[in-house]
Amino acid sequence: MKKRDRVFCDNLKDYKILKEETELFKRENTNSSIFIIAMALGFKEGKIHKTPLKKGKEGVVRLTYFKEEHLSMIKAVAIMDSGLDVLFDEDKVYSIAEEYANGGIKMLKRELIANKEPGSYIKKLCTELLDISRKIA
Amino acid sequence: MIIESIKLTNFRQYQDVDIMFTKPDKNKSFTIIQAPNGVGKSNFFNAIIWCLYDKEIYLTKEDKRLPLINTIALKENDGNSEVKVEIKMRDEKDRPVFISREQNFYYDQERKIKKAPSKLKMVREINKNMIVVSEPEYILSQLMPETIKEYFFFDGERLDNYFKKEGAESIKNAVFKISQIDLLDKIIIHLSEKRQSFVRENKNLTPVADKIRQEIESASKALETSKQDLDEKNRFLVEGKKNIKEILEKIRKNPIKNAKDLKEQRINLEEEVKEYEDKIKELELDFEESLVNLAPKILIHNAIENTKEIIEEKEKRKEIPPGITDKYIRKLLEKKECICGRILSNKDGSEDNLKELLNRYKNLSDLGSILLNIKTDIEIIFRENSKFKETYLNYEKTLRELEKKREEKSKLLKKTIEKLSLSDESFAKYEGDLESFNTEIENINMKIGELKASIVNSEQFIKSRNEALDDELKKEKKFNLLRRKRDLCAQTLEIAERMKKEIMEETKEEIEKRTKEQFFQLIWNPSAFKDVKIDEDYTLSVIHASGLEALGSLSAGQRQVLALSFISAINGVSGFNLPIIVDTPLGRISKDTRSNIAQKLPNFLKNKQVVMLVTDEEYTTDVRKKLGSYVGKEYEIKLKEFKNGGIAKIIEK
C-alpha cells in the first residue's frame, strides 16, 4: 500500500471559498491552517460531526506542508479519538483528522459564509475559546 | 489820331518818298495828292494800309503780279533789300506814335524773289519817354481796328459796294465794331460762358450739408446716451467694487476666517480617524491571524491535555525515554551474550527471552519516539492555551483603546465638519455674493469697454462728419457764391443784351439820322427826296419825294453822295478820331456835282484830317477853288519809267 503523503477533503472548493470570501482567512490563508481549524471545530463538536469522506475525495494539504505543531495536534486528536496505539497506524491518524475536518469545514462555511454579519462568528468563537480558556485556568 | 508824315522806302514804285500831311486846325485839314490814273495813288493808299494791317486792299491786276518791293532797288542791292513804310502820328493828347512795317526781300538761287515775314514796330511816348511797344499788333488793333478801316481809308470808286447786299453784313459788323457793340458782344459771350460754367460747377457741388447735420445730430444724441450709460456703468462699477470690498471685509472679520484651519483640522482628523481605523483593522487582522493559529489549539485542548498527561505518565514510568534501545538488544543477540555477561543459550531459554524483549522494546521505542517528538509541541500548545484569555483581553483592551481614540477623533471630526459646514454655508453665501458681484463687474467692465469703443467711434464719426460738414459748408458757400455769380451773370447778361439792343438801335438811328442829314446837306437836289432809311441789316434805302424807293434809280453822283454821307455818319458815331484817307473820292461824280460836293465837303468833314488822292479829272480848277482854303498841303505824284520798272516821286506843289 502506498504511503500516505497528503490529507483529503470532500470538496476543495470549500477551502477556496473560505480563503476568498472571509475575513478570518484574509491573512492566514493556507489550506493547512483551514484544515487544522476545521479539524479542531469538528473535534470540539464531538464525534457526531466526524464525517467520513466520500469516494471522490480531493487532496487538500500535502503532509510536508503541515507545521510540526499541526502534526502534533493531529496526533493528539487521534490519540483522544482512538487511544495511544493509534499512533502505530499513521494512516488512521490522518483519516481521523480528515473526518473531523470534513465536518468542521461545513460548520465554517455555515458560520462564515452564510452568516454575513462581519465579525459575528469571530466573537462567537472567541467567547467559546474564552470559556475553554477559563476552564484551563 | 492824326498822321504827321509818311515815309515810303522801296514800296513798289516809291523808292524813297517822305511827305508831311496837313495838321488839321480851324481852317485847314485837307491834304491833296494829285496824280493821273496809273501813276501810283492807289499804291500810296495801299502803302498806308500795308503798314497798318499787313495787306494791300486795292491792287490792280498788274500790281498783283509784281512784288511789294521796288524791283529796281532790289536789283541795285544785289537781290537783298527791304521794304519799309513809316507813319508818324500823334494821338489825342498830341503824343507821338511811330508806326513802321518792314519786310525783307531777296533772290533765291534760281533768282526768284523770296520774302521774309514782315515786322511791325510801334514806338509811343509814355510818361514822356519813347517806348517800343512790345505787342504792336494788339495796340494798333485798339487804336485803329482793321474792321473799320474801310470807313476811314476808302476808295471812292468802290463806295457803291456799300449798297450791295453782300456789303450789308460787313457794314453791320463794322457798325458793331465802330459803335463798340462788339465789346458788348464779347461781354455777352463771356458772361454766357461764365454763367454756363457756374451752372456746371454748381451742379457738381450740390450741397448735402443738411443731411450731414442730421447725421451729426443723430450721432451726437447717440454719443450723449453712450456717455450717460458710461457714467451710470462707472457708478455701478464703483458700487460693485464697494460691495466686493464689504464682502471681503465681512469675510475677514467673520469666524469663517478659521475655515481654512477647520479644513486643515478636518483633514488631520480624517487622517487620524483613518489611522485609528487602520490600526484597529490591523489589530483585528493580527488577532484573526493569531486566532487561526490559536483557535484549533484551544478547541482541541482536551486532546492536548490528554496527550500531555499520557506523556507525563510515560515519563513517570520511565517509559520515556526508553532505558535500553532495541539496537543494544540486537547486538547482544548477535553476540549471544546476556546483559549480565553469560552466554545465551536456547537450552535454558535465555536467547528466546532476549528475542521477546527485543520485540517488546521495538514497539516501546517507536511510541516513545513519537510521544517524545510531539511532547514539546504539546507542552507549548498547552501553555499557550492557558494564556489565551490574557492574549484576548490584551487584544480587547488595545482594541477598545483604539476604538475609543477613534471615537474621540470621529466626534471631533464630526464637530469640525459641522462647524465647517456652518462656515461653508456662510462662506458659500459670501462666495456666491462675491461671484455674483464679480460677474456683474465683469459684465459692467465689458459694457464699459463697449461703450468706450462706441464713444470713440461716435466721436470719430462726428469729427469726420464735422469735417465733411465744413467741406459742405464751404461747398455751400461756394455754391451760394456761384449761384449769386450765376444770377449776377444772368442779370448782367440781360442788361448787356438790352444795352446791345439799345445801342444798336441808337447807333442805327444815329447813323440813319446823320446819313440823312449829310445826304440832304450834300445832295444838290434835296427836294427830289423825302427820306433816307437804314434797316436792321444796315441796308440803305432812299425814299423819293413821291414816297417810292429810289436807291435803284439814283445817279452815280447821287449814290456817291449817299455813300459818303453814310461813311461820314458811321465815322462820326464811331468814337474813333482817325484821319480819312480817300482814294478818288469824286471819280464817279459828274462835273457839276463835283463842284457842289467839293463846296460842301470841308464843312461836312469838319475837324477831320482828310487826305484825298485825286485824279486830274477830279481835282478840277473849280474843285480846287472850292477846297482851296481848306487844303494845307498839296502834292503831285510824278512817275519816271525805267526799263526794269518805274520810280514815283511825290512833289509838293
Kindly describe this structure.
The complex is a heterodimer of chains A (137) and B (653). Chain A is built from five helices and two strands; from the N terminus they run βααβααα. With 137 residues, chain A is mostly helical. Chain A has a two-stranded antiparallel sheet. In chain A, α1 (12-21) packs across α4, α2 (31-45) runs parallel beside α3 and α2 (31-45) packs across α4 (90-114). The mean pLDDT of chain A is 88. By secondary structure, chain B is of the alpha/beta class. Chain B has a domain at 255-463. Chain B is 61% helix and 16% strand. Chain B has helices at residues 41-53, 61-65, 71-76, 136-143, 165-178, 181-205, 209-253, 259-299, 301-316, 326-335, 350-522, 556-574, 591-604, 621-627, and strands at 2-11, 14-20, 30-34, 80-90, 96-107, 113-115, 119-126, 129-132, 153-155, 529-534, 540-544, 580-583, 610-614, 631-642, 645-652. In chain B, the strands form three sheets. In chain B, strands 1, 2, 4, 5, 6, 7 and 8 form a seven-stranded antiparallel sheet that branches. Chain B has a six-stranded mixed sheet with strand order 9-12-13-3-14-15, with helices on one face. Chain B has a two-stranded antiparallel ribbon with strand order 10-11. The interface between A and B is large, with 41 and 37 residues.
